[in-house]
Amino acid sequence: MKINKQHDIVININSTIYDALIQLENTKKKHLICVNDHMELVGVVNDGDIRRSLIAGNQLDSSVNVAVNHSPVALNLQTTQKEIEKMLSIRIRIIPIIDERNILVGYYDFKEKNSQISIKNRTVAIIGMGYVGLTLGLLLADSGFKILGYDLNSDTIKKLENSIPPFYENGLENYLKLHSNKSIKFIDDVSLLKSDIYIITVGTPLKQNNKKPNINSITKAAETVASKIEKGDLVVLRSTVPIGCSRSTVLPILEKKSQLKCGKDFFLSFAPERTAEGIALQELKTNPQIIGSHDRTSYELTSQLFSTITNTVLNVGSLESSEFAKLIDNSFRDHLFAFSNYLALLAEQLNINLHEIIDAVNFNYHRNIIPKPSPGVGGPCLSKDPHILKSVFEENDIHIDLINVTRKINELGPDLLTLKLEKLMKQVGKDLNVASKISLIGLAFKGNPETSDLRDSTSLSFWKALPNKNNIFAYDPIVTDEEIEHLGIKPTSIEGAFMNADAVIFLNNHKSYSNIDLVNCLNSMNKPAVIIDTWYIFDPLFFKRHQGIIYGGLGND
Hints:
Elements: E1 10-12, H1 17-27, E2 31-35, E3 41-46, H2 47-55, E4 75-76, H3 81-87, E5 94-98, E6 104-109, E7 123-127, H4 131-142, E8 146-150, H5 154-161, H6 172-179, E9 184-187, E10 197-200, H7 216-226, E11 234-237, H8 245-258, E12 267-270, H9 280-286, E13 289-293, H10 296-307, E14 313-317, H11 319-350, H12 354-362, H13 385-395, H14 402-427, E15 438-441, H15 458-465, E16 472-475, H16 481-487, E17 490-491, H17 494-498, E18 503-506, H18 518-523, E19 529-533, H19 540-544, E20 549-553
Parallel strand pairs: 1-2, 4-5, 7-8, 7-10, 8-9, 10-11, 11-12, 13-14, 15-16, 15-18, 16-17, 18-19, 19-20
Antiparallel strand pairs: 2-3, 5-6, 12-13
Helix pairs in contact: 4-6, 4-9, 7-8, 11-13, 11-14, 14-15
């Protein structure tokens, strides 16, 4: 590690506090080294020392000497690189180097160490404490980093400070109890946001009128980070964005507001989140981490960061390539599910059991990865990311309707399910509009891996499509009764869902459903009654053998 011999942070002890503030602003650094007229080391002063001096009553024209730490850590020219690396840390950021006569010959700067000093000496600030930001922050804290978790929602921050998970995620509570207020500090005050690495994880919702990506939260987060970054800092974008957003939107904001140059003064990468809700904490350790960067140093720093929690890091080159990779992931899976859901329409018309066919064509045939049909595709990613990818196609004048068709098939699921329920209710001589009780089992957008996430849930889309909301009851193994009631649905137990019900519909595939005492539950229904198993959780023959029960599935009956 080379000695920095520039005099950019050297100030004469006869200078004023005002002179020091101007120099700190010009250098975009936090420390100054004070010398006398003979270049002998006097001490070190930082921006915090100056603030405390002013609070104590000193004036801007007072000598900077009143704020100086006259006993700084300093090293001589005999110091080895290993010894330097051991001394430099987030606490000791500037180390003056002196000769045998106490003459300043240069300094070592914590910010300029880059890959030469352990990445774990750097603090990490994560912008956004949702599923993506919180799980990553806790894993990095567990790996030995000092973490700042920043979010505008003060209620979320209060919960996290008290180790209360703001959402369900397997293992989350244990990590919070272990690290909250210790290696990870949660804040909603932007003035406390100061770090060496900034990771942006805020959401990118769709605009309701045209389903185009809304990047307002991204730009606001970028502006916040731009006001904080200093020389040597790393910025990592982890939010799902349109291809080109990192370079064309985020980068200009960072450079303009900070007056720093990317690739020289600070560094920028895009490292997409690729975990599944419910097993995110596990997958952060096992999933390969894709990284695309502005330049080589940006990649090396980002690679070091993620290598502390996962064994595999993949360099895809540019920022745009990494953004593209993220959109491909979820859009491909949306296409897969649409294919099966499309086949289900035909299978029902032909009275063929699609589930059995898929099992057969997938069996020991490695080229096939055909999924089972479902009541649509929801959740905050698969229902959104294809629209973001579609917007990029349109920007490049490619107007083939593949993504539109895929989304249309998957978004039709809840409406088709409503028609099926109405048809089956008529078979048992009941009117869906006046039925005494309809029970929904599973409101979260998926049951396996389990989650409490209701965002873009097809279960809720189905509920909204039902004509009479007054007779709807719901049970979910993870979503709380309070959350269900807040939606305007009557919460119930699993047994209560069946009691006197005219119809029970399984809308997600939580593993706990296999433990239901189906015989007693079916006997308690208001027969003749309807059961719809949208995930093929149970053998259809079980229901078909039960007197007074009409069965419905997807892709089989």
